[in-house]
Design goal:
With 307 residues, the protein is an alpha/beta fold. 36% of the residues lie in helices and 23% in strands.
Length: 307
């Protein structure tokens, strides 16, 4: 699963301009970016996204300029065994192959960006198929082995239930990761813009608030309030969907009591096993910021595993 949010957003801002789309279509070894990663190149030389973390972007920019002029897709391979790879800066020991397409009907049609955005806005993904012989992309699946399929997931979002101190740190980490974050808490004195600047706040009861956000595989729901009246309804709502990561703060003892309560609501063993509790990865965390870091790490690992 590649993070292409910046490239997709750039298209919306650059519509109507000549553009080319560079995509990682294959990797081997310690490649710096996964298959499906995009870099969008404007006709004036601007770019958004990344296909190698900076290693070969300069060379691909020049290639993209030629594709914009010619209107023909181009493929190029960069590997540690190639002298050119060292010249353009791919010393990481891996190999990547890049496809550069014009934003055009016989390359990557502009309408596909709208299709991707519409699907993501509805909270689900879409797969784009590319014929590597012609360089043309579309929605129609190709014969196995004859093309490249790239799946675009919905944007990652984090729903934090409980506007406590850990939530303040977790919201900041999520922002740095580019994850859309909402803090949910019906207690008005906890849920204030001063405590959560720049974060979406929702003071509805958690079951209603979580359901309204339509959680899916790219969504994480983390309960932090320690109050069963707040946390339990949020967990039940999250478990009713395909939520990618569900976690609850608390000790093993408190989680055992939580499982007993949730069982009384009719949830089965398979549902309850989806809850990561105690939340996060065990790093021996001390204090709110470190606990938030451990929760964020568990969330990222789970979302990557789902992807």
């Amino acid at each position: 699963m590649a993070d292409n949010d910046s490239a997709l957003a750039a298209f919306a801002n650059w519509q109507g301009a000549p553009m080319a789309l560079a995509t990682v279509i294959s990797t081997w070894g310690s490649a710096p970016r996964p298959r499906g990663s995009h870099m969008l190149v404007h006709g004036d030389g601007r770019m958004e996204g990344s296909i190698s973390g900076g290693c070969v972007e300069g060379d691909v920019l020049a290639l993209a300029a030629g594709v914009i002029t010619s209107g023909r897709s181009e493929r190029r391979r960069y590997g540690v065994a190639d002298g050119e790879a060292w010249e353009v800066g791919l010393p990481c020991g891996g190999t990547i192959e890049i496809l550069v397409q014009p934003i055009a009907d016989d390359g990557f049609p502009a309408a596909l960006f709208e299709t991707i955005e519409a699907a993501r806005r509805e909270g689900h993904g879409v797969t784009i198929h590319t014929d590597l012989t012609t360089g043309q992309s579309g929605l129609t699946p190709l014969a196995e082995g004859s093309g490249f399929a790239n799946h675009y997931t919905a944007p990652r979002q984090l729903l934090i239930v409980g506007a406590v101190q850990i939530a303040q740190s977790l919201a900041k980490i999520a922002e740095a990761l580019g994850i859309e974050t909402t803090v949910i808490d019906p207690r008005e004195r906890f849920l204030t813009p001063e405590r959560f600047p720049g974060v979406t706040l929702d003071d509805r009861w958690p079951d209603e608030a979580v359901a309204a956000r339509r959680p899916g595989p790219s969504t994480a729901v983390v309960t932090l309030s320690h109050d069963p009246k707040i946390d339990d309804p949020a967990l039940i709502a999250a478990l009713a969907t395909s939520t990618g990561y569900i976690a609850a703060l608390g000790s093993r003892r408190s989680h055992a009591a939580r499982l007993e309560r949730l069982t009384m609501y009719g949830l089965g063993a398979a549902d309850l096993a989806r809850i990561d509790a105690p939340a996060g990865i065990d790093i021996g965390a001390l204090g709110a910021a470190e606990i938030a870091l451990s929760v964020a790490a568990g969330m990222i690992k789970a979302l990557h595993d789902r992807g």
